[in-house]
Amino acid sequence: MPTSLEAVRPIPLAEIQEARLRIAQTIMRTPLVRLELGPGYPDIRLKLENLQPIGSYKLRGAANAVAMLPEPERRRGVWTVSAGNAGQGIAYAARRAGVPCTVVVLETAPAAKIDRMKALGAMLVPVSHDVAWKVMEERSYPGVDGTFVHPFDEHNFVAGHGTLGLEILEEAPDAVAVIAAIGGGGLITGVGSAIKALKPEIRIWSVEPETAAPAARSFAAGSAQEFPGWKASFVDGAGGPRVFPRMWERMKPLVDGCIVVTLEQTRQAMRLMAEKAHVISEGAGALSLAAALTGKAGDGPIVAIVSGGNIDLDKFRDILEPAIA
Questions:
Q1: Fewer CB within 10 Å, N side or C side of the chain?
Q2: Where are the beta strands (DSSP E) in 235-312?
Q3: What is the pTM (predicted TM-score) of this model?
Q4: Bridge partners, residue 204, by sequence
């Protein structure tokens, strides 16, 4: 790992507000809609980041991070490592900046994400899940040149995600809780930084799938933890084998706790969104709704961030079939 990494520091509200202006012409201000479930359910509103131009919230951080690179670093081209959504974000931002982009991508990434990265002009280098996590830790990969943009452990990337928190406060000022999935932790850190700066009484909940829940172990232990027995699942955009110590340092002052949901609860949340709100979500994007439905975040109003919708339609159908049967 490079020895010149910037020390972890809080993200000031002013930097998030500046990021908002910087990326305004690149991202979409996504709608926030109430999920009408009837009596006996929490009051849940869905923040539809699946409607971003790349189908994921990652565009916010990527656009800010690439825009803030010094010109000599942009001219070298940029590269990242991704399960698909961060790769799309960096590729989109790189194309707008007119610079080449390479993505070291998980070989199990959905075809929808692979195709989109190619369409955005990215050169792809497929690797295994273990290799991808090693690349994220070491920030290098043989034969790949350019300026590395980390998909979550990067201050300006996280500040870009904070713009989502500003929108939530404007659109749901009565919210008592916000829920977001954790993969690397960039989304929850950015959103939490904005919300806690303005309304610290709002509770920030993270959520992970039962098959990959190192953040839950970390909150229980009070330190960054690994998750023994990690398993791949259709929730490919969240839940890693471990929490990076640097990301734990970012998250711990901002996040009130972590909810773990089953794959079946996630599947049911995907189906519920499709039926009730006509929203197609990928597995990671449905985690927040699954967590809200457990009741562990209270009766609401709860904002559940639908972080992405990049999923192959055939896979989406196959995931829902057990619930339909």
A1: C
A2: 257-261, 302-306
A3: 0.93
A4: 178
